[in-house]
Every structure is written in structure tokens, then in C-alpha cells.
Amino acid sequence: MTIYGYIRVSTEDQIENTSLDTQKSMIEGVAKANQLPDNKIVWLEDGGISGVTPFMERPAVAPKVFRNGDVIIVSALDRFSRDMRDCLNAVHELKERRVKLIINGHGDVTDDSNLYSRFMFEMLGVFAGHERRTIRMRMANGKKAKSKKGGYIGGKVPWGMKVEGEGQDANLVPLFPRRDQAIWRMKSIRNRENKHGRKTSYRAVAEEITKIYNHPINHNTVKAIVERS
User: Fold this and answer.
1) Ordered alpha helix ranges (H), the chain
2) pLDDT tens per residue, the chain (229 residues)?
3) What does the angle CA 80 – CA 82 – CA 86 come to, to the nearest 5 degrees?
4) CA contacts within 13 A on the Cβ side of 4
5) Beta strands 107-108; 100-103: pairing state
6) What stretch(es) of the chain map to CATH 3.40.50.1390?
7) Going by C-beta distance under 8 Å and a sequence separation of 6 or more, which residues neighbour residue 186?
8) Does domain 3-141 have CATH number 3.40.50.1390?
9) Cα–Cα distance between 69 and 96 in angstroms, integer?
């Protein structure tokens, strides 16, 4: 029998100063409470791993071959998983291998006779998933707010713009005094008809704009800007 102590922190946890040492202390306490030797725990440590990453696929877990009689102890449900489906799938797989999973405060959740813990585990799995969705929504709203203020939230830098600053202080600033005039000029050139009554091609517009502003732009970008404006 091998006793494993699983500990995990993600970026969100590090911001909140969640400590791996604190998790270890809690797991050692759970081991003692279950009359297991706390000085023989094999630690499985995942640093910077999201709680939605499937438990059995995490770097510290995937290489391990859990055997009949092994015990895994986790300090809290959200250290184990933040996704309800993964919670239940991982517990089912551990039960098939006859491996115990003890979660601090809920007991052995692989024990079908532990009905209260099983119920609490499933309910808390729902809340853990809800918590993560709430965090994602807040992050998305924060990005939208920053984008409206001209902040840079990552991805491709729009034509005619550049990034100033780093991290949370990064902002998009125009390369030209009047970027809106440059966009207006693109549309004007595009709508200019040749002798055959056809509009100027996007490729020709790109070439002319590149010469005027001494800043390269391709025809696909021109097309996207013109059609969006």
C-alpha cells in the first residue's frame, strides 16, 4: 500500500497566496485521523495546473500506476477538481482500481457506504464548477472593460496600433495621429472605380496604403477593416 498526498496550485491560487505547505499539513492531519502513517506519504505536486485539467491526466498523476489498496489524500475538493464530470469520472476510475480517495472534510469518497460524503462530494463538485465559471465570467468582463478603455488584452495587434507597457499596464496606442483617417482613406480608395467601372481591388488598396503610411498592410486586413467599418 502506498499513501499519496496530492497538492496543487494554479495561477488563481498563487494570487490568493494558497500554500503548498499548508496543503501538506492538512493532508498529514487527515492521514493521522485515519490512522495512516503520515511520515510515509508520497507527494504528488502539480504547480500552475488548472483545476479543470482532468485529474488522471495531470503531470504529477499521469505517470503513476495506482494499485489495489493505495490511498490518495487531498486537502480540499477544489484541489482535486473543479469540474463535476471529471470529479465523478476520476472517482469511478479509482474505485475500479480499488484505490481510496480521502478528501479532507468528506472522508473516503470512493466508499459507497459513505452516503453523506458521496452526496456532499457530488454537490460540491457542482459548486466548484460554478465557481470556476464565475471566475471566467469576471475575467471576460474585465477584458471587455479594458478593451473599451484601449487596453491590450492579448492576441493580434490591430493594424495601425502598437502596444505600450507590459502585463496589466499594456495599452494599445495608434501609430498615426489620426488612425481613423487612414481607415477612411482605405474605404475611399476601395470605392474608387477604374475605367471598367470596377472597384479598386483590396490588394491594390493595400499597396497604396502601405506607401502612404509607410506601414505594411495586406489585402486580407484591408478587406476586414473595410467590411467591418
Assistant:
1) 11-15, 20-33, 77-80, 84-96, 115-148, 179-191, 202-213, 219-228
2) 999 999 998 865 454 555 788 899 999 999 999 999 888 999 999 988 888 899 999 999 999 999 999 999 999 988 998 877 788 888 888 988 999 999 998 889 888 888 766 676 676 667 666 767 777 777 666 556 545 555 555 667 777 777 777 666 667 777 777 778 888 888 888 888 877 778 889 999 899 988 888 888 888 888 888 888 6
3) 75
4) 20
5) antiparallel
6) 3-141
7) 205, 209, 222, 225, 226
8) yes
9) 11
Q: CA 49 to CA 45: how far, in whole Å?
A: 10
Residues paired with residue 172 on neighbouring β-strands, in sequence order: 163
Written as one letter, the residue type at 171 is N
Report if pTM > 0.85. no
Can you name the residues that pair with 45 across neighbouring β-strands? 7
The string over 35-65, giving b where at least 16 C-beta atoms fall within 10 Å of a residue's C-beta and e elsewhere, is ebebeebeebebeebebebebeebebbeeee
